[in-house]
Specification:
Number of strands of chain A: 0
Largest sheet of chain A: none
Strand content of chain A: under 5%
Structural class of chain A: mainly alpha
Number of helices of chain A: 14
Largest interface: A-C, 70 and 61 residues
Strand content of chain C: under 5%
Mean pLDDT of chain A: 85
Shape of chain C: elongated
Order of helices and strands of chain C: HHHHHHHHHHHH
Oligomer: heterotrimer
Radius of gyration of chain C: 23 Å
Number of strands of chain C: 0
Radius of gyration of chain A: 24 Å
Helix content of chain C: 55-70%
Largest sheet of chain C: none
Distance between the termini of chain A: 6 Å
Chain lengths: ~325, ~325, ~300
């Protein structure tokens, strides 16, 4: 277990370094003056050519590319990610205040997705080729196939505009900072992202439970005189969860992808909204920080998938 | 005293290609404490018939289409789900073919055994049930049962796993044990040990045992009476001694000729020519007729189903011409 | 919205209902059996019909009907459906139906192109990983894991942020970040095939590895590739729509289903001009749904055990 962890983490670091090289190289190819994203924009706009040349030298931008990379990398891991061109604030503090809304949205949606998908997927598997299976399959297929932004717009149309039940945007009302207000703002984004997650997960749960149902240990348990529902919960579920947990871990970054879109529709002040706004404003420093964060999330969730796999399956010995 | 009486049991499978007549009207009985061997090639319906008695054939596609299974006054075919659950594991224990897959890979072995007890005895404490599980493991010859009970199936060898499955089956002192090819998936050296174990478990519990196998040698060793199945039907039934000495059905005779033995040269082994019939088509006459030296050219054999009829006391054969056989292994020698 | 890409859960080859082994199959060609299985799945049949209807509308209808997706007519802006415009007009008076049809061309085109690229990369890498095993295999599959978990939408955000959005970047990004699904499937097929007798026999007579890949292994994987291709097209269609909706994909004035919805981000449009956002949204959903159903139907037809 120990040596497995060490090797996996080493491989992860190598992958991360590789990704940073790619990001750095892409940014180097980008149009525009790199100085503009490394100092506050007011200073840049007010700066004389001499001042900018001085800054360029000070920032090491006249050095060889490899030196620039190490300098940039060193700054980045210390949290110095440069400055946003749009409002001149340091990127690290921008990111810091955006992370938690996104995590809230992702976490709650994932929870909702799991809560919906587990019973639905199990039902579909147990009632294979019966009406409830077809309905579950059809519904999950529809939620997978309908773009989240379209679902979001429909939700806004009905619940905000026609029924006037829920706020269409933001995280809270400036006049009302109560918890219930926050919850009202949470409902639509979480349900929209959660249902998309549930649709996807239901299919995995169904197929995983289905393949477990044909296992012989199910018959053994039934032969002991156990009722089917108990067999499902005590025997099948635990086995079926092994691949599902892994899938969930691997798809955490995918959930972030979904969150980007949902944040945009509901003006949810998270990372995704920050990133999309940054693209429209050519705010490269923010985009680079976003890319680094996503890469870390991707690598960590891969590691998490491996570890969870070993935790839930006693047959797996990590070595 | 009769423990189980099966009458005209028929099981079908509805598939995309048509209806498979997997079990086609079989009748037999088993007495208390008796060991009954059921032999036949794979696909002869021997496993399916036993599974269907316990309601363990997946429906759909499987379906019991007729007959009755009387077990201590209850018709298992018509019994409620609830009653069936009480009988399964409590009064009838089941041992499966492949111990590699019969156990839940992510549950400790001891837990899987004690579960068999707590399902039927809700008042039993978890501690008492796991103590009983350890006892059972010891009984079936698993060394260091305390430590083994906390392990997972993958930490057990094949033979040890099958012992655990046996422990599970006898956990509630059943009156009937059904063993479905319990040694087929094991190494030859382990087979003898597990068979021995089964015999001891049977003696310990006094349970009647139905022993399903395709291995006539195993049946000879273990059972007193034997049923020979082919194409979902019973071809012949009787004591092991009479059937081995003087088979009265050409299929049994063929099986015996294909059996390797220390007494015979391997050259004299003669496999039965041809293949088992396609069970998708209804068979009007005797299912063995196309492969049979006696019946191949006889109209009666191809048009009329031979009933399972007594040819000698306690010896039944489903052949129109049971007297034309020249009597089994001794005859061939 | 898809969570990145479609993963095929590995299932043991013995899965499926435990049927008695006495079932003797009537002899039919695998292809005929597959067609029969497909036609039994009515959702897949309906999906196929809808899909064909979409393709005909997007690619053949404009040949027979005059449709102008670019004609600006400010005097007739934001008109409700009717008055010579089947689905009304948008903010600059362009015909919504014409933009929907041409947008379909672009969206479907992007989906097909990206999926083709994805399959080319995935099948090649999967075949290589399966054939050469060892180190090559490990590195490729590890990379596949990482690529699979990068959501394409995030990748495109980064690329569009740095270089500005474009269709070509979209296609390449989608193709490069959806290949792992097909590579896993192809690798799986190759690994099982590798052990088969005729491949062993071919090896024994000295057949080269490249020869084996192109002549034996890839053809065997073909049916599975078709299935994955279909599902990848569905995924790419969704990704394109999402990205264009965010303004990071197909750039206006070129229409695409996603960027038609881009305009629907204002509350006024959502509230009072549903003809601007309902048709493209329904089009994407229906199209993706039918492609997914076709893919599912194909998968069951190719390998009934997976259902």
């Amino acid at each position: 277990m120990g040596s497995f962890l060490v090797r996996r983490i080493a491989a992860m670091i190598v992958a991360f370094l590789l990704i940073t090289v790619i990001i750095f190289w892409l940014v180097h190819l980008a149009p525009g003056d790199p100085v503009s994203r490394l100092i506050p924009i007011d200073e840049y706009n007010a700066g004389t050519p001499a001042f900018l040349a001085h800054k360029r030298h000070e920032l090491g931008l006249d050095q060889p590319l490899i030196v620039q990379y190490f300098r940039w990398f060193g700054d980045a891991i210390q949290g110095n990610l440069g400055y946003s061109v749009s409002d001149g604030r340091p990127v690290s503090s921008l990111i810091a205040e955006r992370i938690s809304p996104t995590l809230e949205l992702m976490g709650l949606s994932l929870l909702l997705g799991i809560v919906v998908a587990l019973p639905l997927g199990m039902l579909a598997a147990v009632r294979k080729n019966r009406l409830s299976d077809y309905l579950a399959t059809l519904v999950s297929m529809i939620t997978i196939s309908t773009p989240t932004f379209f679902v979001g717009i429909i939700a806004i149309y009905f619940f905000s505009l026609k029924l006037q039940l829920l706020p269409s945007s933001g995280m809270s009302d400036p006049q009302d900072g109560s918890t219930s207000d926050l919850l009202r703002h949470l409902v639509m984004p979480v349900v929209v992202l959660g249902l998309a997650t549930a649709g996807q997960l239901t299919r995995y749960v169904r197929s995983s439970v289905l393949s477990e149902l044909s296992s012989e240990y199910v018959r053994t348990a039934l032969a002991k005189g156990m009722p089917m529902w108990q067999v499902l919960i005590k025997h099948v579920l635990r086995n079926a969860l092994i691949p599902i947990i892994t899938v969930i871990a691997i798809f955490l970054p995918g959930l972030l992808g979904g969150a980007v879109v949902v944040e945009q529709i509901f003006a949810w002040p998270g990372m995704g909204q920050l990133a999309v706004t940054a693209v429209t404003r050519q705010d490269n420093a923010v985009i680079i920080a976003f890319a680094l964060l996503v890469s870390i999330l991707v690598l960590l969730s891969n590691l998490l998938a491996d570890l969870l796999y070993a935790v839930v399956d006693p047959r797996v010995v990590l070595k | 005293m009769t423990l189980l009486e099966v009458r005209d049991l028929a099981v079908q499978f509805r598939t995309m290609d048509g209806t498979v007549h997997a079990v086609d009207g079989i009748s037999f009985t088993i007495d208390k404490g008796e060991i009954l061997g059921v032999v036949g090639e794979s696909g002869s319906g021997k496993s399916v018939s036993m599974m269907s008695m316990l309601g363990l054939v997946p429906q759909p596609p499987g379906r019991i289409v007729g007959g009755s299974v009387l077990f201590e006054g209850t018709d298992l075919v018509r019994a409620s789900k609830r009653r069936m659950r009480q009988i399964r594991g409590e009064q009838i224990g089941m041992i499966f073919q492949d111990p590699m897959t019969a156990l839940n890979p992510v549950m400790r072995v001891g837990k899987q055994i004690s579960e068999a007890i707590t399902i039927h005895h809700r008042r039993t404490s978890a501690a008492a049930a796991s103590a009983r599980a350890v006892d059972l493991l010891r009984l079936v010859g698993v060394p260091q049962p305390e430590a083994r009970a906390t392990q997972y199936p993958h930490q057990f060898s094949g033979g040890m796993r099958q012992r655990a499955v046996i422990a599970m089956a006898i956990a509630n002192n059943p009156t009937l044990l059904i063993a479905d090819e319990p040694t087929t998936a094991l190494d030859v050296t382990i087979q003898a040990q597990v068979l021995d174990m089964l015999r001891r478990a049977q003696a310990e519990t006094g349970a009647a045992t139905i022993f399903i196998t395709h291995d006539l040698g195993v049946v000879a060793e273990l059972a007193r009476r034997v049923i020979v199945m082919y194409a979902g039907r019973i071809m012949e039934s009787g004591t092991v001694r009479t059937i081995f000495n003087r088979p009265r059905h050409p299929y049994t005779a063929g099986l015996l000729k294909s059996l390797p033995s220390l007494k015979h040269d391997s050259q004299t082994l003669t496999p039965i020519p041809g293949n088992p019939p396609n069970l998708l088509r209804p068979i009007a006459g005797c299912p063995f007729q196309p492969r049979c030296d006696i019946g191949r050219d006889r109209e009666l054999c191809s048009t009329t189903r031979p009933p399972l009829a007594e040819v000698a006391p306690g010896h039944d054969s489903a052949c129109h011409y049971p007297d034309e056989l020249d009597g089994g292994r001794e005859g061939a020698a | 919205m898809s969570l990145g890409a479609d993963v095929v859960l590995s299932e043991s080859p013995t899965s499926g209902p435990p049927l008695p082994d006495e079932i003797a199959h009537r002899r039919r060609s695998p292809f005929a059996l597959g067609v029969r299985r497909y036609l039994r799945n009515w959702l897949a049949v309906v999906g196929g019909v809808v899909l064909i209807a979409f393709l005909v509308t997007a690619f053949i209808l404009p040949l027979f009907m005059h449709l102008d997706p670019y004609g600006v007519d400010l005097s007739h802006a934001r008109q409700a459906p009717g008055h010579g415009h089947l689905l009304g007009t948008d903010g600059t008076g362009r015909d919504v139906f014409a933009r929907l049809v041409y947008g379909g061309r672009v969206s479907i085109g992007v989906g097909l192109a990206a999926a083709t690229l994805s399959i080319l990369i995935g099948a090649t890498l999967g075949a290589v990983a399966g054939t050469f095993a060892g180190w090559t295999d490990m590195v490729i599959m590890r990379a596949a894991d990482i690529f699979l978990s990068f959501p394409p939408i995030v990748v495109v955000i980064v690329l569009a942020g740095i270089f500005g959005p474009s269709v070509w970047m979209l296609i390449v990004a989608l193709g490069v970040f959806t290949w792992p699904t097909s590579s896993r499937v192809v690798r799986g097929v190759v690994v099982t095939m590798r052990e088969r007798e005729f491949v062993q026999a071919a090896r024994a007579v000295g057949a080269g590895r490249i020869w084996l890949i192109t002549r034996h292994l890839l053809p065997a994987a073909l049916s599975q590739i078709v299935v994955i291709f279909t599902l990848t097209v569905a995924n790419c269609l969704l990704q394109e729509a999402g990205l264009s909706f965010l303004g990071l994909g197909v750039v206006p004035p070129t229409p695409s289903w996603g960027n038609l919805l881009h305009d629907a981000q204002s509350i006024t449009v959502i509230n009072s001009m549903p003809w601007l956002w309902v048709p493209p949204g329904v089009a994407v959903a229906l199209m993706v749904l039918s492609v997914n159903f076709v893919g599912d139907g194909l998968r069951d037809a190719v390998d009934p055990r997976q259902r």
